């Protein structure tokens, strides 16, 4: 018996979730172990996602997307995670979820036609570069600088921990164009192959192995001024606008990992005999599985509630921070319990729960560390002076 959750989804959204599950069985499950070993996913996978109608869900049709709401995207992603996607696969396949929204919302038609449409058709791969060696969650203090020189910007600096930057075709880069702090940041699209722009190092990670992660160097990189996204010195606000959807996406990954770990652990406990009876015959094991189920259900309900409020146009920045924390804390705890219930097998690389255990550890860090987001939520909720 497999545990799933469909409440809160329409019939169409449940069908979308089931389609994502079937796609996973056909196009992902046979290959995922090899992609984890390779350290990246093949470029043609983007075309398969686009052909199946999964790449542009939640993106407006007028820019090449498939339309739909954030809740539609939630249903799709739940199907993928229920099917056993790794964190690295999700991050790589959907890096455009953080690379192109700023261009869609604020960029010129030329930028949309040059970068957004090819990404949504699976022909290009984009990434977003914010984090630097000296600035992670503290976005307002990035140091990479872009100086206007006629019809170009000249960029100097470095970025690190950038998802999909190794195989990516362009990087939407956060740069400093003005005064210190949030008011002096802009976003500029930097195409791969631009002189002076290099992937200086491919990074090895604890988890998210199927996701290529790079360190980037910008040395007198000249980029056309037309590659500026929106207005100069407005980049911080463009980034902040999309933090809610990014954090909901990470929350979805969290409860998705947890739900998969719950099902893997429950199946193992039904078939694994110890002391003459299945593990699930022990009260302590049943209680543990039930608590795992409870935490997954709570995390999912909270995440989808915030997603619905976001779709309705509400300002829910604080709630998105708290939903992410709830879901990723659930992922970390449930994955740990799943490994424990598997015993020695849970510590083996051949066990899927071992992979989830490593993958979920990034979630309380990525998209804003839990400590930073908790403090942000405190200020937004009026609990700080």
Automatic annotation (TrEMBL):
Residue span(s) of domain Acyl-CoA oxidase/dehydrogenase middle: 128-221
Keyword Ribonucleoprotein part of the UniProt annotation: no
InterPro entries: Acyl-CoA_DH_CS, Acyl-CoA_Oxase/DH_mid-dom, Acyl-CoA_Oxase/DH_mid-dom_sf, AcylCo_DH-like_C, AcylCo_DH/oxidase_C, AcylCoA_DH/ox_N, AcylCoA_DH/ox_N_sf, AcylCoA_DH/oxidase_NM_dom_sf
Pfam families, sorted: Acyl-CoA_dh_1 (PF00441), Acyl-CoA_dh_M (PF02770), Acyl-CoA_dh_N (PF02771)
Acyl-CoA dehydrogenase/oxidase C-terminal domain location: 233-379
One Gene Ontology term of the molecular function aspect: flavin adenine dinucleotide binding
Span of domain Acyl-CoA dehydrogenase/oxidase N-terminal: 10-123
Source superkingdom: Bacteria
Listed SUPFAM superfamilies: Acyl-CoA dehydrogenase C-terminal domain-like, Acyl-CoA dehydrogenase NM domain-like
Recorded family membership: Belongs to the acyl-CoA dehydrogenase family.
The name this protein goes by in its record: Acyl-CoA dehydrogenase
Organism expressing this protein natively: Nocardioides antri
Organism classification: Bacteria, Bacillati, Actinomycetota, Actinomycetes, Propionibacteriales
């Amino acid at each position: 018996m497999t545990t799933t959750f469909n409440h809160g989804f329409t019939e169409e959204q449940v069908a979308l979730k089931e389609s994502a599950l079937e796609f996973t069985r056909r196009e992902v499950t046979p290959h995922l172990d090899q992609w984890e070993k390779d350290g990246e996913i093949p470029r043609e996978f983007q075309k398969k996602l686009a052909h199946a109608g999964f790449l542009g869900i939640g993106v407006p049709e007028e820019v090449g997307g498939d339309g739909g709401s954030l809740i539609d995207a939630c249903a799709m992603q739940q199907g993928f995670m229920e099917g056993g996607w790794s964190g690295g696969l999700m991050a790589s396949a959907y890096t455009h979820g953080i690379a192109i929204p700023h261009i869609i919302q604020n960029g010129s038609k030329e930028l949309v036609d040059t970068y957004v449409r090819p990404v949504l058709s699976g022909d290009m791969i984009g990434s977003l570069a914010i984090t630097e060696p000296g600035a992670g969650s503290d976005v307002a203090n990035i140091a990479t600088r872009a100086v206007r020189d006629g019809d170009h910007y000249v960029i100097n600096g470095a970025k690190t921990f950038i998802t999909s930057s190794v195989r990516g075709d362009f990087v939407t880069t956060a740069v400093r164009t003005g005064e210190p702090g949030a008011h002096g940041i802009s976003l500029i699209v930097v195409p791969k192959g631009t002189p002076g722009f290099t992937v200086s190092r491919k990074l090895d990670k604890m988890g998210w192995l199927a996701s290529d992660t790079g360190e980037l160097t910008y040395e007198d990189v000249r980029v056309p001024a037309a590659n500026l996204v929106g207005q100069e010195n407005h980049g911080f606000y463009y980034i902040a606008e999309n933090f809610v959807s990014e954090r909901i996406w990470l929350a979805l990954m969290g409860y998705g990992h947890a739900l998969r770990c719950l099902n893997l652990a429950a199946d193992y406990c039904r078939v694994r005999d110890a002391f003459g009876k299945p593990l699930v015959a022990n009260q302590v094991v049943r209680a543990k599985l039930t608590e795992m189920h409870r935490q997954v259900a709570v995390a999912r309900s909270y995440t989808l509630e915030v997603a619905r409020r976001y779709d309705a146009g509400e300002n829910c920045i604080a709630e998105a921070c708290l939903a992410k924390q709830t879901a990723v804390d659930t992922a970390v705890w449930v994955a740990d319990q799943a490994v424990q219930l598997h015993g020695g097998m849970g510590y083996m690389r051949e066990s899927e729960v071992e992979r989830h255990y490593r993958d979920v550890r990034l979630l309380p860090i990525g998209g804003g560390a839990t400590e930073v987001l908790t403090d942000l939520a405190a200020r937004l909720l009026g609990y700080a002076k």
